[in-house]
Amino acid sequence: MAITTYILLASASLLPALVTSVGRCFREKDLLSFSLFSLCAIWEATIISAYIHADYMMALLDMYGQSIRNYHSYMCFASLLGCLLVNIMLSLTVRYMKKQHVWKWIIGVLALFLFAILMIGICISLIIGVSLDQGFFASCCGVMGAVGVAWGLTYKEICVIGNIYLEAGVCLLSALWLTWSTIKAYRRNRTKRYSLLMSAGLLYGMFYLLVFLLICSHYAMPMEKAFDLCYHELLMLASDWHTTYNYVNYLIFIILFLCLTLGNILAAKCLARNSYKKEGD
Q1: Scanning 26, 66, 124, 132, which has the fewest C-beta atoms within 10 Å of its C-beta?
Q2: Rounded distance, CA 220 to CA 46, Å?
Q3: In degrees, to the nearest 5, what angle opens at C-alpha 134 toward C-alphas 131 and 139?
Q4: pTM
Q5: Which among 278, 157, 276 is positioned nearest to 221, based on CA atoms?
Q6: Each residue of 45-63: pLDDT tens digit?
Q7: Where are the alpha helices (DSSP H) in 100-166?
Q8: DSSP conformation class of 64
């Protein structure tokens, strides 16, 4: 009964964002409104799947040596709090996001999403009695597993798609955007300085493209084997860096990914703003 209540609360809290996104699609009929609707619909499916397949979520947590089936309701309640935070931010985003402030909202939603996962991890660590590191890592695995269930994928498949291919692709796109920004800046200001900047931008984009192709080539195998290969490589890195498997995951798939992607985006926006000023002068 408690789990059913959590499903209804989590789903209902997203309804305002979902309804508003549908209204925006009919009114505006552009890519932004359709993207917001798709995001809300996917997140709604993920929430429902995460709670319907609660046993699968608990099995993921059990992988880390802690049997928590006696804390089933507590885990669902902690997840509900995290979902409520994200749903509130999504509702505000769908209602108030404008095209000129898209990246600010995306960064804000991403930050709140990570904060919600951290809160779930803190709840897990307090309830079960594990460390914060184990609780946070377990919550990350639970979210990945929930997304996989919503898309009909196994945990290993969603990890390979999300952590390897998707993150590498997003980094590549952000780098290519920066490269395109250097080209546009040179077209506005045909000076030697901007010519050198464009050359550096082209090399930068080619470097990212080469790395992306190497990653795809390295993991060009069935996803189950690609996951196992990545797992063993991360263990080797953890041993070489004298740290743990969890921290290597945080460093590569959260910190490094966010630094590269957001750094490219901010650099592209700064370059565009400065080149417009230069052209105006």
Answers
A1: 26
A2: 28
A3: 125
A4: 0.78
A5: 157
A6: 877 776 676 666 666 556 5
A7: 102-128, 132-150, 155-159
A8: T
